Amino acid sequence: MNDSSPATPRLILSGITKRYPTILANDHVDLRVEVGEIHALMGENGAGKSTLMKIVYGVTRPDAGRIEWNGAEVVIHSPAEARRLGIGMVFQHFALFETLTVAENISLALDERIAPAALAPRIRAVAERYGLPVDPARLVHSMSVGERQRVEIVRCLLQSPKLLIMDEPTSVLTPQAVLQLFETLRRLAAEGMSILYISHKLEEIRTLCDTATVLRAGRVSGTARPREETNASLARLMVGSDLDDAPLEPHPAGEVRLEVRGFSMKARDPFGTALRDIDLTVRAGEIVGIAGVSGNGQRELLAALSGEALGQHEGSISLGGRRVESLGAAARRDLGLGFVPEERLGRGAVPAMSLAQNALLTGAHAGMVRLGLVQSGAARASARATIAEFKVKCGSELSAAERLSGGNLQKFIVGREIRLAPKVLLVAQPTWGVDVGAAQMIHQALIALRNAGTAVLVISEELDELFAICDRIAVLTAGRLSKPEPRASLTVEKIGLLMTGATQEPTQSQAHA
Amino acid sequence: MRIASPLIASAAMLVTGFLIFAFLGKDPLSALYMFFIQPLDSLYGVGELVLKATPLALCALGLAVGFSANIWNIGAEGQLTLGAICGGGVALFWSGELGRLALPVILLAGVAGGAAWAAIPAVLRTRFNTSEILVSLMLVYIAQLLLAYLLHGAWRDPEGFNFPQSKAFDDAVILPLLMDGQRANISFLFMLALASLSWIFSRRSFAGYRMIVAGQAPDAAAYAGFSQRRNVWLAFLVSGGAAGLAGVCEVVGPIGRLQADISPGYGFAAIIVAFVGRLHPIGIVLAALLMSLLYLGGESVQLGLQLPAAVTGLFQGLLLFYLLAADLFIGFRLRRTPAAIKVPA
After folding, report:
1. How far apart are CA A326 and CA A123, in angstroms?
2. Residue A320 CB: number of other CB atoms within 10 A?
């Protein structure tokens, strides 16, 4: 702990305990954040990071423990009270109204009532001061995820917080945008703002943070000065055991399983990205990665490949040599296509349904439906097998999908698709918001699938991930796909250039169209 | 809480009814007795309860299939009317030739008529993406005018003193009663059979699962490749067929002929029944009995206390209103905000 700081610590949590019916989410957690410090909160999914932050932000009350704010003990009853104290939070999932402008959104979110027009100059001032370009008059639906994050940060900064909580902020940003964000955060810290930075990206934490508190299974498993640690030592604190790097053994690729030729398609959504002249081949036994910042056509490409989006198009898509561009999602599944979508709740799984019922979602041909009747025994057995194989933390196969943490649900969905033994597997953001242990498990499962001869296509915003598991990598920018190149011939810088340098940010140009 | 909400709504309806009767200057307790107890104090009364609950439940069971997938058939009243026209037509013109097969053919004609009428909004929705709510609702009025057209013209009873009604059907094609001394007939058994089928459909069948997924998470249904077109067709054919069966059972049941008014709004009241019953087969049967009691009670206080016929609709409306309110307040909390936002010039 940093006891040398002369000032009163900004925030001290001592002995915070929070029990939920089935689990002890926080068990006597101590945390100390100094003035002007960037403090990392690390931990696997389900380690209790979110619960702890909800307690600090006044969303839930602890069962036991003390919170000291600037040296005085406080009880925080609500987020509004937390904001009054000077605690701001940027959530991982933004709560913005897409049909309203930036200024209108911020006006709605502020505790004081200020008209959007009166707010605009203040937004511009804050945006300029911290290097966060945001136009108050722009409609949110026309903005990329990175730009939306800026709106959320500006919203927090308008209330001049003393402590800013950021929940996995970089998962949606380009490498260059991450650098820019870090610049902003460092400037804020230099002015005396404390920052609680929740992340599982070890590299980032080592670059940015002064101190780290690591949670494991609800308890503090250690504190560290990340700059003096290695990735391996930090990961050990988080997971409790050494992680073996999953090396990607060279593996001969087999026949072509997925082939896209000159495929173009207009976006269904007026603010989507049109796909332009996509060429792509994925062979049996290889993993091809598609890099790029979301909003560049990832959603559209996946929908076109999965069969969810059918419509006017040029060019062709073939699965195992068969033309499928006019076939629906169910027909493509029948041809051996598996798909793990980016949104887990609501798309990859039905939130209120049990895991067994969710196994049925894509398992109709795996013996779970006979004569039109659901074989609930088979569905439950399949869900149980997935849970066991992928170590999904849940009550049982009868737990509702919405009760699982993001990482555990992702493990379940990936496991469910892999169990169907697909010939081609599409995976979108396989480890988005997933902790190191689960991410590694998912990576190993994908590599095992590749070694077993499946063609795997991974779309991810995380370059580290693509470099870890892909044989070839392409970049999607403004609806155009670069030529996939072998991993060995690529560097992060080169991909970063392809992402941003090839064309300007697509959403910018649309907004002015 | 899903089960609590209809109970809360029923209690709130009773309290409001109590206040309304008191306000009208009637003794509220005896009025409520007359409304809710008196109709059931005889075998005949219980028979009437079952008689009216049957078409309500038939329509509601069909509607619930689509409602669970966010497919809104609002036109069960029209499909009921078409069921009555088609079944009644067979009964009028072919009951002699068909002999013993007459009744089954009549019932099937009713189901087919209702399903065919429901197919119109289904085609328009799946082909042209029209709103099935508007189309199915407007088709109700067309169906009723079609019935009136037939009864004022070709199908009018020549010896009926120009009343808009057909000849009475043959006794051979009238549905057998459940027991003597009351009017409920074996359509009640059809309803129970449909309730069981509906339970199997929603709990065990993959088609039912697909509809529930489509209702709860449309993106997950698209991801899994479940066709919403197929859901729309299934929902409309089932709900139309069930409403058609309700209609034909009315005309070859208690009415015994085709006439201009064959339903006191069963098809619309069934929407309330489906929601009060939480789209669950058992709930729907219970809710249909309650709704039927509202009809009987309404008639009872009309006769006993000279209250207007609107009192039935009033109680139905109260029930739905309180149900929606109870659902809202169970799901959300009301909060006062300090001041309004100033709208910029």
Report:
1. 47
2. 17
Q: Which helix (H) or strand (E) holds A186?
A: helix A175-190
Question: B197 in a domain, yes or no?
Answer: yes
Cβ(B284)–Cβ(B242) below 8 Å: no
CB contact at 8 A, A51 and A18: yes
Q: List residues in chain A touching B: CB distance below 8 A.
A: 107-108, 113, 115-118, 306-308, 328-333, 339, 341, 343, 346-353, 357, 360-362, 364, 369, 372-374, 376
Q: What is the sign, positive or negative, of the torsion defined by CA atoms of B7, B12, B15, B17? A: negative
What confidence tier does A129 reach under pLDDT thresholds 50, 70, 90? confident
**What range does the domain containing B90 cover?**
4-330
Count up the domains in chain B and report the number.
Answer: 1
DSSP state of B175: P
> Which residues are registered as beta bridge partners of A157?
none
Secondary structure class of B25 (helix, strand, coil)? coil
CB contacts of A373 in chain B (<8 Å) are: 204-206
Q: In chain A, what are the domains?
A: 11-239 (3.40.50.300), 256-336+422-511 (3.40.50.300), 351-415 (no CATH)
CATH number at residue B83: 1.10.3470
Per residue in B295-328, pLDDT tens? 999 989 888 888 888 888 889 889 889 988 988 8
The CA distance from A81 to A59, in Å, is 10
Q: In this predicted model, which residue has the larger pLDDT, A89 or B343?
A: A89
Residues in contact with B171: Cβ distance below 8 Å, sequence separation at least 6, in sequence order = none
Full strand arrangement of the beta sheet holding A163-167: A87-90, A163-167, A194-198, A38-43, A211-216, A219-224
**A69-124: pLDDT as tens digits:** 998 999 998 888 998 899 999 887 677 888 899 999 888 888 777 888 888 998 99
Judge whether B322 lies within some domain.
yes
Rg (CA), chain B: 22
Token digits of residue A160: 């001049």
Best residue of A112, A361, A362 to probe chain B, by most B CBs closer than 10 Å: A361
CA nearest to A358, candidates B123, B102, B306, B224: B224
Tell me the pTM: 0.75
